[in-house]
Amino acid sequence: MVQTPKPRLGIAMIGYAFMGRAHSHAWRTAPRFFDLPLEPELTVVAGRSPERVTAAAHTLGWAAAETDWRRVIERDDVDLVDICTPGDSHAEIAEAALQAGKHVLVEKPLANSVHEAEAMTAAAREAASRGVRSMVGFTYRRVPALQLAQQLIAEGRIGTVRQVRAQYLQDWLADPDAPLTWRLDKSKAGSGALGDIGAHIVDLTCFLTGQRFAGVSGMLQTFVHERPVAETADGLRASAGSQRGPVTVDDAAFVTGRLSSGAPVILEASRFAWGRKNAMRIEVTGSIGALAFDFEDMNVLELFDAEEPARTAGFRRVLVTEPDHPFLEAWWPPGHGLGYEHGFTHQAVDLIRAVANGENPEPSFAQGLHVQRVLDAVERSSDSGNRWTEVPSNTAV
Amino acid sequence: MVQTPKPRLGIAMIGYAFMGRAHSHAWRTAPRFFDLPLEPELTVVAGRSPERVTAAAHTLGWAAAETDWRRVIERDDVDLVDICTPGDSHAEIAEAALQAGKHVLVEKPLANSVHEAEAMTAAAREAASRGVRSMVGFTYRRVPALQLAQQLIAEGRIGTVRQVRAQYLQDWLADPDAPLTWRLDKSKAGSGALGDIGAHIVDLTCFLTGQRFAGVSGMLQTFVHERPVAETADGLRASAGSQRGPVTVDDAAFVTGRLSSGAPVILEASRFAWGRKNAMRIEVTGSIGALAFDFEDMNVLELFDAEEPARTAGFRRVLVTEPDHPFLEAWWPPGHGLGYEHGFTHQAVDLIRAVANGENPEPSFAQGLHVQRVLDAVERSSDSGNRWTEVPSNTAV
Amino acid sequence: MVQTPKPRLGIAMIGYAFMGRAHSHAWRTAPRFFDLPLEPELTVVAGRSPERVTAAAHTLGWAAAETDWRRVIERDDVDLVDICTPGDSHAEIAEAALQAGKHVLVEKPLANSVHEAEAMTAAAREAASRGVRSMVGFTYRRVPALQLAQQLIAEGRIGTVRQVRAQYLQDWLADPDAPLTWRLDKSKAGSGALGDIGAHIVDLTCFLTGQRFAGVSGMLQTFVHERPVAETADGLRASAGSQRGPVTVDDAAFVTGRLSSGAPVILEASRFAWGRKNAMRIEVTGSIGALAFDFEDMNVLELFDAEEPARTAGFRRVLVTEPDHPFLEAWWPPGHGLGYEHGFTHQAVDLIRAVANGENPEPSFAQGLHVQRVLDAVERSSDSGNRWTEVPSNTAV
Amino acid sequence: MVQTPKPRLGIAMIGYAFMGRAHSHAWRTAPRFFDLPLEPELTVVAGRSPERVTAAAHTLGWAAAETDWRRVIERDDVDLVDICTPGDSHAEIAEAALQAGKHVLVEKPLANSVHEAEAMTAAAREAASRGVRSMVGFTYRRVPALQLAQQLIAEGRIGTVRQVRAQYLQDWLADPDAPLTWRLDKSKAGSGALGDIGAHIVDLTCFLTGQRFAGVSGMLQTFVHERPVAETADGLRASAGSQRGPVTVDDAAFVTGRLSSGAPVILEASRFAWGRKNAMRIEVTGSIGALAFDFEDMNVLELFDAEEPARTAGFRRVLVTEPDHPFLEAWWPPGHGLGYEHGFTHQAVDLIRAVANGENPEPSFAQGLHVQRVLDAVERSSDSGNRWTEVPSNTAV
């Protein structure tokens, strides 16, 4: 078996903090476990601090470092731009990259406002007509257990979707002295728990059901209004300084809503849920069954089949580590679980394949825009006494 | 040790279906495991069908049977009237019994309307001034794990309450051919999932936090609008007939709200949650810890203590079967769990003790009225686009 | 529907401590929930202390009290003798009762020695020929989840039994200052963890598989050799005195063995397993599936069906509270769990029915004898370096 | 911050199947997440088939491929030899490599016989005197939850170790038509479930308690004696051919034993446990607490602290993803779990650091030899009716 070298896919990554480390790992690892049509190359990473970005390039395995993302986009050896910066810079970078003919992967949330997200979606649509691909990084879609859930729902295994219940619970802000990072600054982060973690369960609801949100009622909550300013704002873990500053985002969001089919949805996102570290849970109930997932036990999907006789019916704990489970053929024997970063690797795999095959990957910018519209409707509802707020359809773009 | 006979407490029970069986068991069993100041006597049970009520008296251990509840109330050997009928008859019976100087235990919900509940509360208040006691049967308050939860919160173990999340999930209506019983008839039951099971988590939220609801936003849902009429409407389990009739209540209720302290609450009640049989779950998060409970594992309380070092912190699975747990001294050794009916026995114990000690037991009719007001506010909110709806305080009675 | 009075079944109970309370509850409760052919009557309870037995009769609901068990056996109004004393008195009482033509229920273990158990079994066989019934109280057989497990195995749902793994874990002796009760005295209790709790998992292995033990290898362990003498030896809960005495039984037992089919078994019984309160766990693996149970979650049976496609296979958490589950029709709606004492009630139900129908109930004395032979073989193996020790078959009696 | 290039550590890997993929990932990934004193370089991989090893080198990221492991050992640019072949070739390769002054990492089990393991241990001891390091790949030691368990026990958090209970349960052979791979051939694999998975729980027992095994009683079981021969013997997943061949190893092993302190141990390894995919479970009970782990939920350690008041005591579910948990500082935020391969990465990290610091890493060959002696004693005990068999101490080497 002679190996003919595969065509390369030059990657440029903008930003190198938490998400940058996860994305770098994905680009490095994907070709080692999956048979890909293109060979991803970690061409260049960009960041503002020359020293830090150079160190990051070395540590994370990038061939070069740059301090100006615009220069990166101009490079001929870059085919795909991977945007891992905070949400306030997504629009500008993504639009420039698409304009330059580079495929784009942008971390979620797509943008900090509906307005920006609309412009990005329009740009992506236009770029697609030129064969340029774009994708938003709702990585949890590629956790194998959630891929399996989506397949089972699409196959009709639980029947018609009747209701969705989801929670995204963390506790890293429950201590009032946890430092004030950029994630608590509305101008950088757009919103708080709502946009950071609530966005994931909004997107997963759409992914799993194949539907969109028709409307929502929302209630936002900030528990702690002032915190010690973080000493290092852009690393993975910040420490608290002596000065204090205002929290300008929500700590928790509570949402009821309806999907396009009318099915009710109830969602909660909280960073104050003591003891829940990354409990992203979603349960979809259909007319003949139900599925349940909790990220704290991420290799498991629970399935209830209502067509079983009641005598032996019960939620099954399916360990999603079998060779015929999504992405699992490439990994380990049954029972040898995957971790958080595998979702990023799977995302890289699917994006590389889409680029090679000339297909538009999902989640698209349009899907990212829909999430943004839902978040926006939640905020507007919260501002006006939880009143029912319709989520405009994307056809309005 | 010579036994002097205890003073007796003559009980009359109105209704003998599901709740009647549970209450009868409680009255029979309480004095066998607990040292009580009064000896409860199962004096008389009342029901409309002479044959059925006679059979029920025999099976459940009542000394006599009656077909007219009014005659029961007149009896001199009856000290306490235990009302186990559907909600539409609660007000009339309870008021008559209190008027006649009988202590009253009324199954939840207190009534089918706020109006009735107000009248009952006023009657109870007046009766209390004459030494007559009244109590509403939110039995889950006396599950030992929930008693323990209440104690721990009151002791400050989780600090200030920050948020409450509760669900009451069942699936017995998920099959569209499940029969149309009185519980699906608004005129009998008042409301559906909201009043039947949602009422429990509203009450528990108040019980555990020691607070009341300030306001709510609600969304109600009926999934199946027509069902086969039940052949036997008042037994424990009904079978479907060939005729069909309309469902006039909600199948599921979705609520966001705030307690008197401003703490946010999110609640869901559904009888359509496939695979969840009696999953009454409540999690209270405070400033320094959290507590979680699920009735499907009713002998367990989960406790997270945020003052533990993170290295060894985690939700503890406390098996609430130790001698120093509430009510447990009377039962079995550690690890030998209790069942559903024990809550009723504990309720009987506390009510008998309150009567003997001249104290007003809880939950009071006023507390039952508050639950009713919350349910009513949810319905009104749901009727007007989820809009924020204040829950009037009881001082308005 | 006219009620003709049922024939009565007069019960005499010998002993009234922990087991006596559970048995009394069962006799009182069985006819209230189950339609029985005979009406059990709590005729008389016997114990050595006149004051205590009188108080117990009053509290537990027995019509009379006696201090001499022999007088009880002579009574014409006693049809069935229920023996709840420590194991050293079982043989004498049971043989006398059977001789007198009384049906006998004897608490487990059947006796403290194989010799006694053999004599009792011979007596039971002879009595059966006269229509007198006998049963040994391995109550856990009548936990609904274990009844269901037995049915599923008998129906072939998991195929041929391949292996059994069981543990019975408690922690009430893990504190070296826990008091020295009769359960730690070899002359009263026969053995320690082995006979008290190990006996249950030996019996359940036989019950679930329908097989007997062919041979065993055993290892016994005493962790704490001296303890403070208990102040009150026969109550439910003893307190430690100032004197100390020797522990003469095992604290834990470790067993490997084979069933009559050759299937391997691994068992552990320990009273030193910190954090495990009453974790009686058994998992039976067959050629096409497996079943798992843990008493700490006693309303659940876990079922793995290997004939499911691997993609959606997983242990199902069957909540054994459905109307078509064993004994459940009589109790509450789905999801409303049962507790420890229900096994005793179900045992009473089955025994009453067997007496009425002229059938020999199970577990029989012969089955109790087999358990005794297994325990004896474990002790002999432990005394001789774990060597393989055959369990004699009952045909040798 | 200027980056001075780190000294390199040239790695040669022998074998490239299941373990080879895991090890390659570890060498590639360790320097990307951990700050290491040496830069590992994937210099060369060796295997018998020229085509396959070349393909593997390309896929797994090795700079060169070789078909003769002896040539690899001679290379000057190789500093460390990583042996991932079946157990029958371990001794020869390891001894040659140590002789040539190369550090050695050898996959578990150390060898297929005690005799070989003794020779390897002697060679490792001699090599250590020359500064050459050796390590055996019991990777599960470096699962963070098990590292934490070891630390807590060493700190005295559960007091004196009283007993250990462990199981390693899989089901990949439960289907009698699963193919006959080299793992079922005694000449290649040494033993079956005992050596393949039982070895892990033997090693973990030693690791966690800091003790060795004094003696054991063992019982081995082969359920299926003949299987279809595998078509491809050295890939990750084999398919069944039409010919059949004999299974010459055990399918399950059942062990009771004692540690050097006398503490009892009970172990089971089975590849026939339907529904258990990789359930490596270990529970260590001490005098004041207990710890429990299950690899199917590998990011969790359960801790019971017996010094808590009983009222709030319970097993804590510690999510081992906090920055102060072993190895976690390098990875993701709390709640973002790790997967199976992380143990290999951590093993690489510790080995690289030991080499750089001139320390002997653990588990040593001597520790691997002890495991081998335990497995051997189990086999000998099983051959002679479970009789107690002492495990010779390593001082006899």
UniProtKB/TrEMBL annotation, chains A, B, C, D:
Annotated organism of origin: Nesterenkonia rhizosphaerae
User: Can you name this protein?
Assistant: Gfo/Idh/MocA family oxidoreductase
Q: Which Pfam families match?
A: GFO_IDH_MocA (PF01408), GFO_IDH_MocA_C3 (PF22725)
Q: Which residues form the signal peptide?
A: none
* Sequence ranges assigned to domain GFO/IDH/MocA-like oxidoreductase in this UniProt record: 147-291
Protein's UniProt keywords contain Oxidoreductase: yes
Superkingdom: Bacteria
What keywords are assigned to this protein?
NAD, Oxidoreductase
Looking up PANTHER family in the UniProt record yields: BCDNA.GH03377
Q: Which residues form the Gfo/Idh/MocA-like oxidoreductase N-terminal domain?
A: 10-128
Q: Which InterPro entries does the UniProt entry name for this protein?
A: Gfo/Idh/MocA-like_OxRdtase_N, Gfo/Idh/MocA_oxidrdct_glycsds, GFO_IDH_MocA-like_dom, NAD(P)-bd_dom_sf
